[in-house]
Specification:
By secondary structure, this protein is an alpha+beta fold. Helices cover 47% and strands 16% of the residues. It is built from 20 helices and 15 strands. A hairpin with a 6-residue loop joins strand 12 and strand 13. Helix 4 crosses helix 5 and helix 13 crosses helix 14. The longest helix is centred in the C-terminal third of the chain and has 23 residues.
């Protein structure tokens, strides 16, 4: 059965005419948008449809999908099986999908110079992965053969990942060919806003629609599967981004309870009186500068620390799951006892020491717990990060719940906003000192924001090592904050160290791309400052 859609040319015409139903849909998806912002969205959707029509013609029946970026309020707890707090944004990616004969996936992008057209055969890609990896499970296959011989960082990998994960699990093949067009992005890449996970979600939604028999109503299970799917690209992240992108309520935030089995999503209100700026530091967490290795090392340190907690504290074995369990309420112990668990871990441990304790050789340790070559694991500080962040997460949850009961502008409301801002600043301090995932650009911008009137708090968002800082501002102050940041942060002298690091990259194409993006950001700082709103999760647009 062919999935129900609308001819691309007709839908494009309705967008140009601003059909009332389309206007209603866009206003609902992008709440609080003014006339200028909505006009920008009309233009984006028209360009996405025009890209499809130019490549494939106006007659194919299509569906349009969006997947938002996400803003983390807490960090890394998803990978430690803890309660993670985040929100979906009104900045998103767009994809127009249709079905066709055959078994190929054709993809075009509205920016073909940076993202060239693709012709992929998912069935063959799956066969190659199975053949090269010789593994029984998906996790083993993508650990030993990430992206299965394809170029690392290729945007095709993010689109293929959910398709291959579904086919690996179900053992069946696509029943139709697919034609996709990716429209203009309102979500900056390499910025810590999870554009990569948004692309994975888009690929899943479009594949699910084109092959309608694969649809699933269990979005929590879908998010778990998509978290595993993204391992294909070479990272070892969790499912939190995908849960947030799929499940975030309109106008609110969500706590994803990864400590539960199965995980579940708890919607929470977001306080009135806060405007959010997401500011790109222009420092990019680029794989050529070691960001992926550092990220995977943090994952290895977290997993090793959790393994040692289980070994050193068998009395907690029935309650302790991972470092996201390091809270008194979850473990049923006192705060002092949780601190003792953290203190029982060594600050540093070599690969050889870890092997001796766990009774395996160094190669097996590195396979299970990735690490930067010739560097020790750092364990106590990593565990301490989660202990402290869990306390802050509980404090923030209380603030959000209380925000329902207090009147905006009242003294109680002002106190809530100040307390929220202090907690955000404390999280940034933990990310910098205990997790060591900040960088000079993030630190400089966070310090600058801390001295600007109207800023409640500021922290990095995402895995760190570069990317964006989220500034939580008092209502009515964001515009002034943005102006100060333009004048005082985006000045060439602040980027001398980063420029020197770029010049040390052997790959000339990567060097030139990073320099170009930095220079463009310095020339047009307004493009690096996003005024964002909290929005609903991903899905098909009801046009």
């Amino acid at each position: 059965m062919k999935p129900e859609g609308e001819p691309a040319g007709r839908l494009l015409g309705r967008l140009k005419r601003r059909d009332p139903r389309i206007a209603e849909t866009l206003s609902g998806v992008y709440p609080g948008s003014d006339e200028f912002s909505l006009a920008r969205e009309y233009e984006r959707y028209q360009k996405a449809l025009q890209c499809f029509v130019s490549a494939y013609g106006p007659d194919s029946e299509v569906a349009v999908f969006r997947a938002p970026g996400r803003l983390n309020i807490l960090e890394y707890l998803d990978m430690a099986r803890g309660p993670h707090l985040s929100a979906a944004l009104d900045r998103d990616l767009l994809l127009v999908a249709s079905c066709c004969e055959g078994d190929e996936l054709e993809v075009v992008h509205c920016n073909p110079l940076e993202f060239p057209p693709l012709r992929l055969r998912p069935v063959e890609e799956l066969r190659r992965l199975r053949g090269e990896a010789c593994a029984k499970t998906w996790a083993e296959a993508v650990r030993s053969h990430p992206h299965a011989g394809r170029d690392r960082g290729d945007y095709a990998n993010y689109l293929l990942a959910p398709l291959l994960r579904i086919m690996w699990e179900e053992g069946t093949l696509p029943t139709t060919g697919m034609r996709w067009a990716l429209g203009p992005s309102a979500l900056p890449m390499r910025a810590g806003l999870s554009s990569s996970s948004a692309l994975v979600v888009l690929g899943y939604l479009a594949f699910r629609w084109c092959n309608h028999h694969r649809q699933s109503n269990d979005l929590l299970e879908t998010a778990r599967m998509l978290g595993e799917a993204e391992w294909y690209v070479g990272t070892r992240g969790g499912a939190n981004d995908h849960m947030t992108i799929l499940l975030n309520p309109s106008g609110g935030v969500v706590i994803n309870h990864h400590e539960a089995s199965p995980p579940w999503a708890e919607p929470l209100p977001f306080p009135d009186g806060i405007e959010i700026l997401v500011i790109h530091t222009l420092w990019e967490a680029d794989k050529a500068m070691g960001a992926m290795g550092e990220f995977n090392t943090r994952r290895g340190e977290m997993d090793l620390a959790a393994t040692l907690v289980c070994k050193y504290h068998p009395e907690l074995s029935d309650r302790f799951i991972h470092l996201g369990s390091l809270s008194p309420d979850f473990l049923g112990v006192t705060k002092e006892e949780v601190e003792q668990v953290v203190e029982s871990l060594p600050e540093y441990m070599s690969v050889e020491e870890a092997g001796a304790i766990l009774g395996v050789d160094a190669g097996e340790i590195l396979r299970r717990f990735p690490a930067v070559p010739n560097a020790p694991y750092r364990l106590r500080s990593r565990a301490g990060f989660f202990q402290k962040e869990l306390e802050l997460g509980g404090r923030i949850k209380e603030i959000l719940l209380r925000s329902r009961e207090v009147k905006a502008g009242s003294p109680e409301h002002e106190e809530l906003l100040s307390t929220f801002g202090c907690a955000i600043n404390e999280i940034q301090q933990l990310l910098r000192e205990d997790m060591e995932v900040s960088c000079m650009g993030i630190d400089d911008l966070a310090i600058l924001l801390g001295g600007i009137r109207g800023v409640l708090g500021a922290k990095l968002t995402g895995a760190g090592f570069g990317g964006c800082v989220a500034a939580f501002c008092r209502e009515g102050q964001a515009e002034n904050v943005a102006e100060v940041v333009k004048q005082r942060y985006f000045v060439p002298g602040r980027f001398d160290l980063y420029r020197r690091r770029i010049t040390e990259i052997p790959n000339s194409a990567v060097r030139q791309a990073l320099i170009k993006r930095m220079e463009e950001g310095l020339s047009h700082p307004e493009r690096a400052i996003l005024d964002v709103r909290i929005a609903s999760g991903a899905g098909r647009m009801d046009f």
